[in-house]
UniProtKB/TrEMBL annotation:
SUPFAM superfamilies: Periplasmic binding protein-like I (SSF53822)
Secretion signal span: 1-23
Protein's name in the database: ABC transporter substrate-binding protein
InterPro entries: ABC_transpt-TYRBP-like (IPR007487), Peripla_BP_I (IPR028082)
Skewed-composition ranges (Low complexity): 29-40
Record's keyword terms, sorted: Signal
Domain of life per record: Bacteria
Region (Disordered): 29-49
Amino acid sequence: MKKLNLKKILSLSAAMALTLSLAACSAAPSGGDAASPSPSQNGGAQGQDGGAGYKIAVVQQLDHASMDEIREAVEAELDAKAAELGVSVTYQDFSGQNDPTLLSQIGAQVVADGYDAIIPIGTLAAQQMVVAAEKTKTPVVYAAVSDPETGGLTGIDYVTGTSDALNTPFILDMMLALNPDVKTVGLLYSNSQDNSVVPIADAKEYLDSKNISYVEKTGNTNDEVIAAVNSMLDQVDAVFTPTDNVVMAAELAIAPILAGAGVPHYTGADSFVRNGAFATSGVNYGDLGAYTADMTLDILQTGAVPEYHVMDGGIITVNTETAAALGADYSVFSTLAGQVVEVQTTEE
């Protein structure tokens, strides 16, 4: 599929021009060329065989490795399922740059343009799309919302999706398996992220039960996260971060700082690890994206909106370069999980 990627051109400075820019753009149908499909009465596009067709908005909260991986998996699965089902599926990418105002504008325009479904990636994006779709009841099928209940995304008849809910105790079990003598753990997160609330509370409960002290540090920008890391280096033996988008965006900058100080960074997603964090146990975001796409097309074809789905986790991912810098023998992780994946740092 050939498609326009608005996330490279949308910015805060262009937000007021969003309506005009979106009206000028369209995506090619799956398996087709660059020509825009003709809209059907329900806002979709007719398949080449005269069957049903759908127009889907993929709204990414911000640009970083985890969300990029999910978006790519969503769109690859939409292409594959369109061919399998014999329907025409068009999709358009949007990025809100982690800005509620811009995400709200995107939501309003997506609804006005008659998209058949919206796939928001991330909690803030999901919340804004749910508000935008309230009157039209356009299906909102979110991806990678760690805690749908805390995010206010449950009990709404046109809303569902996939959750990458974190098994925080398991990750901290990994930490103690590698170093049973941990005395103090740094809890690094953004207090603007709903999806960090429950995992941080879980981490505190776990550490209290083990009589391990902790230091909380927060940041809401890259500079604040870097400052938070530097302020805890001489206090902690390890650092834990949940699936926090703000910290993820800063991982490439903070990973060398932590590794250089001999402090392993345990995180909530493999994207952190691919950007230099030490280790995680979580879901496969490729599988999550594909599952979300399948849910979306099933809803469009059947009209039935199921409960949200919590993806299976249990895959341990380790950055071998960071492990070498830390002098960490992570072979013990193989006794905790059935699969240990080794990766190296990529600047994506």
